[in-house]
Every structure is written in C-alpha cells, then in structure tokens.
Write a sequence for this structure.
C-alpha cells in the first residue's frame, strides 16, 4: 500500500523555487530517507506534505486520498505527523504538557490520552524521568527524544522527521536513531530528512536525493551508498558532469 | 493608617475592574502579540447593550434586582464575546500574515468604528446615559469606611471569573493548546491544533470578561458614555503591562496594584490626577522592570 505518493509536486515561495516537479512515494511500513545538501528543498517538501505550505502544482496522496488544500491540523488528525526541523518543542510547557498536546488532534478523551501517555512512556522511559520539568530546561538530545515522543502520542501512521541528528553529539544521535527504529518496528511509516548520509542510509531501505529542488537520484540504500553521484549532489556539482 | 486601609479597600474594588479588562488585553497579546486597542471599546459596547437589555426587562428604576442583573450579565458576556470573535474574524484574521504594526493600526481603526457606531445608533448617542438599574447603598463597615454589598459582590465575581480563566489556561487541554499557540504557532498546528479556532476562543473569553466588567460598571456607577472604553482601555492596558503582559496572573495582579496605586494617588493629589498616577506607575515599572512583575520568562535552548 502506498502510504504517501507525490506526483510532480512544485512548491514556490513567491517567485522563489522551493521544489520543482518532485515525484516520489513511500510504502506502508518503510523507512525512506530524503537526502540532500542545505537548501536542496528537503524541509520544503516535508512542509508541503504536512500542509504548512501548499504546492503550486502537483498532487500529494495519503493512502490513496489526494490531500489538496486540506488544512495541516486535519492531516495530523488523520495520522500524518511531522516533527519539524529544530524540534520546536514548547519550551515554556512541561514535558507532561508537551506530550499531552501531542495527542491533541487524535485522542479526544482524557482516559485515551492517559493510556496513550503510558504507552509512549513505556516506549521511551527517558521521558518519565523529567516528567514535570519545563521542556526548555532539557538538553538538545533530550528535546529531540521529547519531540519524537510527542509525535508518537498521536499514534501516527506516517512520521516525518526533519534532521533529527542536527546539533547532537554521536552518542545522542545513536539514542535518537534507536528510537526511530523502534517507531518503525511498531508499524509506523517513517520519512526521514537527513544531511548525514551514512546515518540515514543505515536505517532507510530507500532514499531520494534532492538537489536544487529536484530529485536527482533515488534507489535502494545499498546501491546509493557507493554511488559517486551522491557525494556530487552534496558538493553542489551537477550530476551530469563527468569526472 | 485607617485612611490608608480605606484607600487599599477602594483600590481593590477599582482593581477588580481593571483586572477583568486587562485579562482580555493580556490573553490576546499572549496569543497574537497584538495590543488590541479596540478591547476597551468591546467593554463600552457591552455597557450600551446591557443598558438596552436592562431597560427592557428591569421593573421600574429600583435597586438591586440581583437575579435580573445576573442573567443579563451572562447574556451580555456572550454577546460581547461574540462581538470580539466577529472582530477577530473580520479584521484580524485576514491580516494574520501582516506586520504587527498594521494590525495595531487596524485595531485603532476598529476602535473608532465601534465608538462612532455607538455614537450614531438611535437611543445611544453622545450623551451620558443613566443606567436603569443601580446597586443599593446598604452594606457593612470595615474600619472607618463603608463598603456596599455590591462592591463586595463585584470583587467576588471578578475574582471568580479570573480564577476560572486561570484554571482554564493552566489546567485544561484547551488552555495548554492556547499556551502552545502562544509560543509557536507552526508547532501547534503540527500537534493537530486548530490554531484559528483557539485564537477565536481567546477573543471570545477576552470579550466576555470585558462584558462582565461593563455590566458591573453600569449598575455600580450608574452612567455610561460612548468614550468610556478609551480611559478604561488605557488603564487596563497599563495594568496588563504592570503585571507582565501575556501573563494571566500578571493581569489580575497588575489590575489590583494599579487600582490601589490609583486610589492612594488620588487620595493624595485629587481625583483629577487618576490617569497621571496610573501612567506614572507604568513609567516607573517600565524603567525598573520592563517585563512587568510576572513578565514572560524566555527560556529557549537549542
């Protein structure tokens, strides 16, 4: 089953091109990575899928339904959840409150939310320790753990996560990636945006490589790992230049 | 000494009004970073609406009629809340991507529209209107000062409403959503929060509180005027800044402190200095503690 399908999607910020003519898909249960250098359009693509911005052209389908102009908060309620770049946890709220809000769009009753909270805390025991602390007092790594835990509160079908390793030391990165594998094992489809290529290809089954807003390369992780065109995309070279 | 206690008593009474109106200012600021200059005029319109409704349902010009005032008060709260929501929908929501300065200018424009709208409405107009119901003078003595039961009730009702808001914002899921929208609107959307709805509810609550304050002003002071929102708006804004704008507890605390300072100040300098004392207090506060007493602590960490 296609969890997510993008057909010729173009996104513009006014006259500035964000992404151009992107066609890609993510199957249910997969981990798919979206790779590319800074400014390649990865975050823009995620934002258009979660509905924060709307594409100028093309269609985005979610389990077969075209999302069109459906508002972002409705998409969350349907299980399409986005952990944005920079984590954006609510620093002035406690960890408990952050988690509770994660279930805002989906778990309507208090008991449902409490049940879900227990499941998520069992999944990520780290969050239990500082439960009543203000989220702003957490370290960067803990904030990322919270951001993922908060997203899991809604029991998403698809988790999109933007640069989870950014600014974290290697030990913390391991913790976060272990979490993502855990999430995937539970049956949640993962779309991962990452600059750190080797890290992403380790857990993703397939990847798309964006360069200047367009997909220049895609395929299974194993074949991309040693593809010289991949590093070219990061160094900003045009892919058709022979070396 | 007892003179001072009297002024504090009067100040708390005055502060209850300031606090209720300040809550609306502060909540809207908290969620939109907008100083809603039209907020005082929601209060003014509410006073005129309650004047008309009370005039239609009150039996003669008698004192008291507590039950009538109570249900009219609730109706006026709903109407004023609806008015504030409508203002948000028609004026502020289409400007959500505009610079905050543009919104403030729109707020001043809305304030003009409301004031002049009341001015040209038949039966309302420019003159001071005498309220059809007033509060009785009976009450109790505390020290050498006489307080009426109405004053006590007004302080209690204000306190209950403020507590209700405090509970709503602090404890309920909706309140947490409000705080989330206040901190990071995009992140709030990504939680599945309908941000436009949350903002509309904040406007409703702010308007309803101003409506309650207006009904109580009307029955207590006995007269209303189409410019009454301007002064109260400025005073409530001062109260909100004193307490730390964006902070619920701060709005109430700021209201009480402003009420007491103004009461003591006018006791010393005379009633015509009320506004000067209020703004003097504001200037001093901004001088020594620009965030207000309970101003937002900004804790952001990467």
């Amino acid at each position: 089953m296609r969890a997510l399908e993008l057909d010729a999607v173009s996104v513009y910020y006014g006259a500035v091109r964000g992404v151009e003519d992107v066609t890609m898909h993510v199957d249910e249960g997969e981990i798919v990575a979206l790779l590319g250098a800074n400014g390649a359009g990865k975050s823009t693509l995620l934002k258009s899928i979660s509905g924060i911005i709307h594409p100028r052209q093309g269609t985005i389908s979610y389990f077969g339904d075209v999302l069109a102009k459906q508002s972002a908060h409705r998409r969350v309620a349907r299980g399409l959840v986005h952990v944005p770049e920079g984590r954006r946890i609510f620093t002035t709220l406690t960890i408990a409150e952050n988690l509770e809000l994660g279930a805002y769009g989906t778990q309507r009753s208090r008991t449902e939310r409490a049940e879900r909270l227990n499941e998520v805390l069992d999944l990520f025991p780290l969050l239990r320790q500082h439960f009543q602390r203000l989220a702003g007092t957490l370290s960067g790594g803990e904030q990322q753990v919270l951001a993922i835990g908060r997203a899991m509160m809604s029991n998403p079908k698809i988790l999109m996560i933007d640069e989870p390793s950014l600014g974290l030391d290697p030990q913390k990165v391991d913790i976060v990636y272990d979490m993502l594998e855990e999430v995937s094992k539970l049956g949640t489809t993962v779309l991962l945006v990452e600059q750190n290529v080797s890290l992403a290809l380790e857990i993703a089954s397939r990847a798309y490589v964006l360069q200047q807003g367009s997909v220049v390369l895609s395929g299974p992780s194993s074949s991309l790992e040693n593809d010289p065109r991949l590093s070219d995309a990061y160094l900003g070279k045009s892919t058709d230049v022979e070396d | 000494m007892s003179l001072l206690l009297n002024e504090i008593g009067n100040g708390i009474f005055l502060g209850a009004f300031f606090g209720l109106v300040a809550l609306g200012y502060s909540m809207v600021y908290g969620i939109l970073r907008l100083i809603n200059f039209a907020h005082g005029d929601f209060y003014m319109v509410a006073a005129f609406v309650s004047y008309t409704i009370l005039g239609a349902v009150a039996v003669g010009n008698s004192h008291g009629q507590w039950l009538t005032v109570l249900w009219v008060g609730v109706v006026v709260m709903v109407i004023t809340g609806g008015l504030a929501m409508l203002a948000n929908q028609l004026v502020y929501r289409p400007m959500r991507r505009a610079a905050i300065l543009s919104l403030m200018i729109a707020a001043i424009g809305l304030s003009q529209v409301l004031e002049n709208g009341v001015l040209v409405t038949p039966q309302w107009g420019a003159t001071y209107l005498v309220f059809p119901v007033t509060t009785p003078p009976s009450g109790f003595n505390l020290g050498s000062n006489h307080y009426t039961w109405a004053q006590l009730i007004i302080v209690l009702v204000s306190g209950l409403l403020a507590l209700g808001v405090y509970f709503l914002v602090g404890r309920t899921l909706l309140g947490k959503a409000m705080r989330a929208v206040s901190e990071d609107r995009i992140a709030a959307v990504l939680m599945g929060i309908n941000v436009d709805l949350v903002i509309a509810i904040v406007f409703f609550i702010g308007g309803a509180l101003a409506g309650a304050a207006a009904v109580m002003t009307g029955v207590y002071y006995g007269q209303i005027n189409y410019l009454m929102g301007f002064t109260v708006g400025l005073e409530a804004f001062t109260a909100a800044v004193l307490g730390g704008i964006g902070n619920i507890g701060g709005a109430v605390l700021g209201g009480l402190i402003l009420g007491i300072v103004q009461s003591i100040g006018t006791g010393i300098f005379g009633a015509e200095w009320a506004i000067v004392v209020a703004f003097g207090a504001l200037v001093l506060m901004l001088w020594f503690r620009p965030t207000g007493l309970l101003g937002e602590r900004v804790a952001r960490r990467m």
